[in-house]
């Protein structure tokens, strides 16, 4: 059975799933989607538009008339992965269109792969469509090619990412996302709600709310109310909670108004789950990062959240080996983690990325020291996770079924987001279950990251 060990890239989206058959003679476009869930949503939007124009979506290179590679540019290692994916698509297919975050550096891509057909930047949907039209002119059948009610999805049918904004107003020194995706641009709340309603009507059981900065949602719109819905994260969360699906919040900065979300969790309107990128704990490290939460008393905030909603699950990501990080600063991070007792933790080793201001900082940490600190950090996080999961043995809880095979049903609790968190396995009496079912289980075994249970 698959389990979830810690990853060096705790930001990755689930693998794109394409299983839509094509009719004879229908033009086919392949899609390789790399990077985070926000990029996966971009891929879904591109494919939805193409599907409406009569193109089929190909699950492999050989059956495709052209291939779109949606790239990631968050880290240099992610850039290398994107270049490798472009190269593979060129070898296997030969007709490749590049988009996504790395597409903001077209000269860099063409330097490595001059034979690509076109390059566009992130969320430039019209330019991607134009490039596809040039490479493979559309030939839609108006009697057959109708847009599915919920659009093309690359995730299992029972959960879906819901992107509420683009861009970011922060200037963290290690991050170039604002340079690639621009400043905060929130979607109107009524448009988000309309999409969410369609998803739930189509059978989605879990909505995963994503953006670059979920807490800031609506700031650029001055929290305007339009068509009965206010563009503020607290109001939006309340509205989404009324749809009857699980609602999970990702990428939430710990601003003071986040405390207003916690009663919604305590009341069961949204899942008691917060994904908050703390990144570090030492004030000097945070200052060098130019993090917006550098002055926040995060331990006090965490205690306040738990007072309101004792069952809250807290997930976060951290960077170790940031330029100038001393052993004392790293030890402060370990001590903070001991006090914070976060439920789910991911960790990056710092990497330079072209264009990031952190590259110019003094006192870069040697690679072997980064690896040692990552190992120590993850050992601490693993011990906390193991103890927290052991405390769940004997508890009764609802889980959502992600997959059923001959060995077990792979499920998730309310404390687990897809791919990045743990699983709960049901390995007896699971034969009648199917993906998307929500069932009640009693936990009877715990590991370092995963649980096992039986239905009650």
UniProtKB/TrEMBL annotation:
[4Fe-4S] cluster 2 binds at residues 168, 172, 175. Its cofactor is [4Fe-4S] cluster. Residues 390-456 form the TRAM domain. Its EC number is 2.8.4.4. It is found in: Cytoplasm. Keywords: 4Fe-4S, Cytoplasm, Iron, Iron-sulfur, Metal-binding, Ribonucleoprotein, Ribosomal protein, S-adenosyl-L-methionine, Transferase. InterPro entries: Elp3/MiaA/NifB-like_rSAM (IPR006638), Methylthiotransferase (IPR005839), Methylthiotransferase_N (IPR013848), Methylthiotransferase_N_sf (IPR038135), NA-bd_OB-fold (IPR012340), Ribosomal_uS12_MeSTrfase_RimO (IPR005840), rSAM (IPR007197), rSAM_horseshoe (IPR023404). The keyword Aminoacyl-tRNA synthetase does not apply. It comes from the Bacteria. Belongs to the methylthiotransferase family. RimO subfamily. This is Ribosomal protein uS12 methylthiotransferase RimO. It comes from Profundibacter amoris. The gene is rimO.
